């Protein structure tokens, strides 16, 4: 590629050229450059069928094949061995063609086909392994309460502290001992379809008590329809409840680290990719899985399910705010990954929306898993995938071998989300009223108007504009995007001073809750010469457990205390050390 074209591309992507590997790089080189496609495999497939599918991937410039069979099901040892045989067969053919193979399996969910009518199922054979939620109810359900659970199938959600942990890591070791290059482990979280506020099993009760000296409070269905006024505030005013919210994040993170450890002990260099759909919004709070908690860990990566506004139509009806939301989610993923490769679903419905989604991923140096929403092992179109992935091959060094040009960082605070936004909706996007725009009838090829039954939400409370922390945070993203200011999102969790030194300006929107260490980090950044912008009515007033601080954690930097916060609508700037701080009470 000519130098002029290369420089122009880097400028458009908000990147600058650098020699060698990008800064803060973790993970194998092939993980950073991966272009992914899903492949549904089964034991009875013929050699011709397998070869034809893999040859098509080569033609489409796919680097990594995500294999999927029935590892999500409750399998006997004999059935597992049969699946391992299938994996070896697929791996041999994938590697012959110069691609890598990563295999999909669920983590804390196990399905039993027709489990409602069987005597032996995961839940029935191991009731003590199940997550326990409200009313001490076990977390298992049957039938089509979720799109991936069919008919009379059983979906059992397992406790990460139970005997299931050894059961699962033993299977991970078997997979790591195979010819696979890695595994894709689906959403390790406390799912709330069967029952809410998991896991309150005796093992978690005991461990939480030992770690904190507190008992897990009795939860209520807080925030749902029919909730009594003030019920959420009463629940969240309990220090034990707030401590448990943080404990659940750590608990799931510890499970992920144990899985990765088992894999790497079996085969050094083996890659473990955890799928995360909770992103920056409130699902991370109530389901426990928070991708910012991982930090700088070698051999562990994320595959982010960056949803579209509609499972049925992708981004076809998205407005400008929705597209900015898509950018926000992608930037969050990159900021949470801390230099690890960022794999992400590149969902689309048609070529025009799928192309824009993938362009956002490339701009953020994320690795696209091209697929047609909401499925995994599919595509918007083979020619579309080939064209987009071939383009990425031509510009691979510019996209993945460069560093961001951003001198502005926007801080994301999981603690502030948990303790400010608990009484609101889940805030994936802005628009809860899908526009009744013209679509194209696939048969007549003529425009039509109609509703979208699969829009992400029809409840106004779910709009991100209603939330205290997330509304402010996403608002700054919209401002920076529309002002064409290159910026990066940095998760405050695990953030270091060395990372902050990359930026001239750091924006901390509605930063209410943080640790003492995080407060010291921001103070050091300003003292060394950085510019800090901080907003919100109670800046740094809470600790990481949502407890009220006796004084603002950054009072000396801000130049005022908790009893002298400037009034609403005011702004104040001051010099601190070699830097400056700017406070906006908006």
Description of the molecule:
35% of the residues lie in helices and 17% in strands. It is of the alpha/beta class and 586 residues long. The strands form five sheets. The chain has an eight-stranded parallel β-sheet. Strands 17-14-18-19-21-20 form a six-stranded mixed β-sheet, sandwiched between helices. The chain has a three-stranded antiparallel β-sheet with strand order 5-7-6, with no helix packed on it. Helix 6 (164-176) runs parallel beside helix 9 (239-266) and helix 11 (320-337) crosses helix 16. The two termini are 47 Å apart. Residues 1-6 and 19-24 have low confidence and may be disordered.
Which tags fit this structure?
19 helices; globular; disordered N terminus; 586 residues; 6-stranded mixed sheet
Strand content: 15-25%
Q: Strands of the largest sheet, in order across it? A: 2-3-4-8-9-10-11-12
Number of helical regions: 19
Shape verdict: globular
Q: Pairing-aware structural class of the strands and helices?
A: alpha/beta
How many extended strands? 21
Mean pLDDT: 91
Would you identify the regions where 5 or more consecutive residues have pLDDT less than 50?
A: 1-6, 19-24
The radius of gyration over CA amounts to: 24 Å
Report the sheet with the most strands, covering strand number, pairing sense and barrel closure: 8 strands, parallel
Helical residue percent band: 25-40%
**Cα separation of the termini:** 47 Å
Quickly describe the structure:
With 586 residues, this protein is an alpha/beta fold.
List the helices and strands and how they pair.
Layout: H1 3-13, E1 15-17, H2 29-32, E2 36-40, H3 47-59, E3 64-68, H4 77-96, E4 100-106, E5 109-112, H5 122-125, E6 140-142, E7 154-157, H6 164-176, E8 182-186, H7 202-212, H8 231-236, H9 239-266, E9 271-276, H10 283-287, E10 300-304, H11 320-337, E11 342-348, H12 351-363, E12 367-372, H13 382-394, H14 396-400, E13 402-404, E14 408-412, H15 414-420, E15 438-440, E16 447-449, H16 469-482, E17 487-491, H17 497-500, E18 505-508, H18 516-527, E19 531-535, H19 555-558, E20 571-576, E21 579-584
Helix pairs in contact: 6-9, 11-16
């Amino acid at each position: 590629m000519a130098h002029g074209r290369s420089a122009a591309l880097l400028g458009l992507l908000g990147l600058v050229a650098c020699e060698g590997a990008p800064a803060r790089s973790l993970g194998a080189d092939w993980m950073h450059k991966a272009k992914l496609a899903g492949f549904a495999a089964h034991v009875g497939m013929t050699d011709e069928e397998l070869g034809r599918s893999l040859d098509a991937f080569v033609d489409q410039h796919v680097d990594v094949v995500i294999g999927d069979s029935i590892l999500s099901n409750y399998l006997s040892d004999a059935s597992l061995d049969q699946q391992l045989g299938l994996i070896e067969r697929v791996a041999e053919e994938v590697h012959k063609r110069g691609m890598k193979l990563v295999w999909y399996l669920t983590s804390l969910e196990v399905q039993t086909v027709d489990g409602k009518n069987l005597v032996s199922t995961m839940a029935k054979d191991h009731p003590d392994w199940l997550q326990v939620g409200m009313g001490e109810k076990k977390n298992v359900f049957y039938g089509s309460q979720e799109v991936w659970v069919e008919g009379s199938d059983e979906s059992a959600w397992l406790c990460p502290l139970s005997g299931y942990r050894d059961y699962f890591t033993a299977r991970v070791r078997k997979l790591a001992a195979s010819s696979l290059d890695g595994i894709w482990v689906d959403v390790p979280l406390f799912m709330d379809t069967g029952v809410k506020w998991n896991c309150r099993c005796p093992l978690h009760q005991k461990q939480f008590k030992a770690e904190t000296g507190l008992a897990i409070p009795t939860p209520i269905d807080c925030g749902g329809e029919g909730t009594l006024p003030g019920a959420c505030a009463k629940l969240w005013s309990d220090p034990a409840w707030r401590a448990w919210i943080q404990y659940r994040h750590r608990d799931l993170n510890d499970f992920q680290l144990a899985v990765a450890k088992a894999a790497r002990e079996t085969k050094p260099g083996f890659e473990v990719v955890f799928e995360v759909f909770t992103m920056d919004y409130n699902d991370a709070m109530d389901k426990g899985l928070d991708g910012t908690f991982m930090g700088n860990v070698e051999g562990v990566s994320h595959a982010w399910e960056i949803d579209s506004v509609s499972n049925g139509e992708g981004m076809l009806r998205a407005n400008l705010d929705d597209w900015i939301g898509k950018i926000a989610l992608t930037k969050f993923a990159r900021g949470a990954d801390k230099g690890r490769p960022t794999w992400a679903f590149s969902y689309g419905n048609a070529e025009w929306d799928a192309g824009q989604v993938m362009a956002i991923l490339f701009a953020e140096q994320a690795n696209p898993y091209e697929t047609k929403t909401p499925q995994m092992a599919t595509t918007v179109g083979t020619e579309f995938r080939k064209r987009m992935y071939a383009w990425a091959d031509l510009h691979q060094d510019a996209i993945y071998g460069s560093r961001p040009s951003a001198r502005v960082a926007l801080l994301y605070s999981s603690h502030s989300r948990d303790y400010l936004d608990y009484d609101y909706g889940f805030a994936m996007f802005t628009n809860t009223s899908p526009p009744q725009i013209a679509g194209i009838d696939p048969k007549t090829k003529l425009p039509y108007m109609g509703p979208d039954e699969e829009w992400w939400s029809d409840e106004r409370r779910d709009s991100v504009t209603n939330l205290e922390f997330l509304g402010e945070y996403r608002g700054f993203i919209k401002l920076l995007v529309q002002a064409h200011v290159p910026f990066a999102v940095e998760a405050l969790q695990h953030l270091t001073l060395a990372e902050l030194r990359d930026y001239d300006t750091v924006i901390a929107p509605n930063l209410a809750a943080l640790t003492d260490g995080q407060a010291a980090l921001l103070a050091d950044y300003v003292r060394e010469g950085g510019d800090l912008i901080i907003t919100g009515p109670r800046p740094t007033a809470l600790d990481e457990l949502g407890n009220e601080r006796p004084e603002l954690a950054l009072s000396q930097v801000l130049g005022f205390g908790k009893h002298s916060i400037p009034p609403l609508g005011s702004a104040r700037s001051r010099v601190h050390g070699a830097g400056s701080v700017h406070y906006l009470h908006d």
